[in-house]
From TrEMBL:
InterPro entries: Peptidase_A8 (IPR001872). Keywords: Aspartyl protease, Cell membrane, Hydrolase, Membrane, Protease, Transmembrane, Transmembrane helix. Belongs to the peptidase A8 family. The chain crosses the membrane at residues 6-25, 74-91, 98-115, 135-155. Its main location: membrane. This is Lipoprotein signal peptidase. The active site is at D125, D143. It comes from Hwanghaeella grinnelliae.
Length: 166
């Protein structure tokens, strides 16, 4: 078997392992913190700039489209799964470990949030950062994985650009 095919399979495996670990970490963190935060009436101040909160996001980033509950639940879940399938096909063609990891993070984050939408009708966000009176919208492990994954995709594009277009 050619080395490139074997290498490609190992990169797909790396991406799928990262995806699976991301889903597991996301769901465990949500399971643990939902119980903890719910027991504390929805908010736990951890530091002067970080809280654990209970936020149910029925929309997408920053709560956009949250007015359409069923569209958000099923439409956004379907869209996230379609994107995940597309990312899987991209993963099958990657040539760099960083891109394989990045796609795994994005896929795992997307699936983690889809699980919430199907189970609860909304995504459970619990991490709340704030400073100088400004609160960043609450987020979770899946959201963090997506952001880091997208950042790595961009970084990979800058560092591993093999297209030498004129």
């Amino acid at each position: 078997m050619p080395e490139t095919a074997a290498g490609s399979r190992s990169l797909v495996g790396l991406g799928l392992v990262i995806c699976g670990v991301t889903i597991i970490l996301d769901q465990i963190s949500k399971w643990v913190f939902l119980d903890i935060v719910q027991s504390a009436n929805g908010t736990i101040e951890v530091t002067g700039f970080f809280n654990l909160v209970m936020v149910w996001n029925r929309g997408v980033s920053f709560g956009m489209f949250s007015d359409h509950a069923e569209l958000g639940r099923w439409g956004l879940s379907g869209l996230a799964l379609a994107i995940t399938i597309g990312l899987f096909f991209w993963l099958r063609k990657v040539g760099h470990w960083m891109l394989a990891m990045a796609l795994g993070l994005v896929m795992g984050g997307a699936v983690g949030n889809v699980i919430d939408r199907v189970r609860f009708g909304a995504v459970f966000d619990f991490l709340d950062l704030h400073a100088a009176g400004y609160h960043w919208p609450a987020f979770n492990v899946a959201d963090s994985a997506i952001v880091v994954g997208v950042g790595l995709i961009l970084l990979d594009g800058l560092l591993n650009n093999t297209d030498k277009a004129a």
